[in-house]
From TrEMBL, chain A:
<feature type="domain" description="CinA C-terminal">
    <location>
        <begin position="24"/>
        <end position="173"/>
    </location>
</feature>
<protein>
    <submittedName>
        <fullName>CinA-like protein</fullName>
    </submittedName>
</protein>
<dbReference type="InterPro" id="IPR008136">
    <property type="entry name" value="CinA_C"/>
</dbReference>
<dbReference type="InterPro" id="IPR036653">
    <property type="entry name" value="CinA-like_C"/>
</dbReference>
<dbReference type="Pfam" id="PF02464">
    <property type="entry name" value="CinA"/>
</dbReference>
From TrEMBL, chain B:
<protein>
    <submittedName>
        <fullName>Phosphatidylglycerophosphatase A</fullName>
    </submittedName>
</protein>
<feature type="transmembrane region" description="Helical">
    <location>
        <begin position="84"/>
        <end position="105"/>
    </location>
</feature>
<dbReference type="Pfam" id="PF04608">
    <property type="entry name" value="PgpA"/>
</dbReference>
<feature type="transmembrane region" description="Helical">
    <location>
        <begin position="126"/>
        <end position="148"/>
    </location>
</feature>
<dbReference type="GO" id="GO:0006655">
    <property type="term" value="P:phosphatidylglycerol biosynthetic process"/>
</dbReference>
<dbReference type="InterPro" id="IPR026037">
    <property type="entry name" value="PgpA"/>
</dbReference>
<keyword id="KW-1133">Transmembrane helix</keyword>
<keyword id="KW-0812">Transmembrane</keyword>
<feature type="transmembrane region" description="Helical">
    <location>
        <begin position="45"/>
        <end position="64"/>
    </location>
</feature>
Length: 177, 164
């Protein structure tokens, strides 16, 4: 099972920063560019990349789509999906990743949407529920993958863990290519 | 008659409680597969089943006591089953959840801090067998929810949804 052991916020922060370094190297070696569509992390994922100097050759930009109107206008998430499945759903994450891929013109786009808490949870989607999607060209054609996560901890911890898992997921995607 | 023998089976959680050493702990361990299956159904069905297991457990424990003529026999473990399920309500499916939840519930059930001990000693019959473990379960659940929401000790549950 893929899990984080007991970690404090500063340890999570360190894990995040060290995992970004490796990912940037792999992206650069493969001549790939990446961009994000972030919701519940509000730019934290992008920020973890821009903390590194000279990252501009692999990271081009992100769309922080906190409100549904931005998800619709800039990421082409359909109104119907938002109405029927909700902003926090695998379908929305899927469309956000593909929308970001088109809008940002990157080789790989990662989207993140979830409930960081402390409120907003339901029985079906408790606090800590996060969907992460990755869109990009795979071995033969365009691929989009979605995973559902359930994180523990407070708002900041959920956001940090989301970024760590998004980068892990991104690494797996690149390595499979 | 058939119902009675089924209740007797339920009381020992299908003979798990007849294990010679630490039947309460073994009964709790035997509940882990049930927790795993119930967790897949979502929190509402999980809670409904757990809720319904309480009166069933009271009847089963009563039937077992009538059967052997002794109160709170060690062989009855349906109380541990229900108590542990209550402790484990609404937690992510990770190995950390089950390890920490198991320890929290066993410590509460063995140490019996108030009011668990008082309930254990004063309340008789099938209800008496069940109630102390149910209260231990509720206290355990509160502890687990505090751990779950205030720390990230329970790890990350990941499920792959779609790939194309």
């Amino acid at each position: 099972m893929k899990t984080n052991a007991v970690k404090s916020k500063s340890e999570l922060q360190n894990t995040l920063q060290s995992s970004v370094v490796g990912t940037v190297r792999v992206l650069r070696d493969n001549g790939l560019t990446v961009g994000f569509a972030e919701s519940c992390t509000g730019g934290l994922l992008s920020s973890s990349f821009t903390e590194l100097a000279g990252v501009s050759d692999v990271f081009t930009g992100s769309i922080i789509s906190y409100d549904n109107s931005v998800k619709k206008q800039l990421l082409q998430v359909s109104e119907e999906t938002l109405q029927t499945r909700g902003a926090v759903s695998s379908e929305t994450a899927h469309q956000m990743a593909e929308g970001a891929l088109r809008s940002l013109g990157v080789s790989i786009a990662v989207s993140v949407t979830g409930i960081a808490g402390p409120s907003g949870g339901t029985a079906e989607k408790p606090v800590g529920t996060v969907f992460i999607a990755i869109a990009g060209s795979g071995r033969e054609e365009m691929e989009t993958h979605v995973r559902q996560y359930l994180f523990a901890g407070d708002r900041k911890e959920v956001q940090l863990q989301t970024c760590i898992e998004a980068i892990k997921f991104l690494n797996e995607f690149i390595n499979k290519k | 008659m058939l119902l009675n023998s089924l209740l007797i089976q339920i009381a020992t959680f299908f003979s798990v409680g007849k294990f010679p050493k630490a039947p309460g702990t073994v009964g709790t361990l035997a509940t882990i597969p049930l927790w795993y299956l119930l967790s897949q159904t979502g929190p509402l069905i999980y809670m409904l089943v757990t809720f319904l297991l309480f009166p069933l457990g009271v009847m089963a424990a009563q039937a077992y006591e009538n059967h052997i003529g002794k109160h709170d026999s060690k062989e009855i473990v349906i109380d541990e089953v229900v108590g542990f399920l209550i402790t484990m309500t609404w937690l992510p499916l990770t190995w950390q959840s089950v390890v920490i939840g198991f320890l929290v519930f066993r410590v509460l059930d063995i140490v019996k801090p108030p009011p668990i001990r008082q309930l254990d000693q004063k309340v008789q019959g099938g209800f008496g067998v069940m109630v102390d473990d149910v209260v231990a379960g509720v206290i355990g659940s509160i502890i687990m929810q505090l751990i779950y929401t205030q720390t990230n000790w329970l790890g990350v549950q990941i499920s792959v949804l779609t790939s194309n």
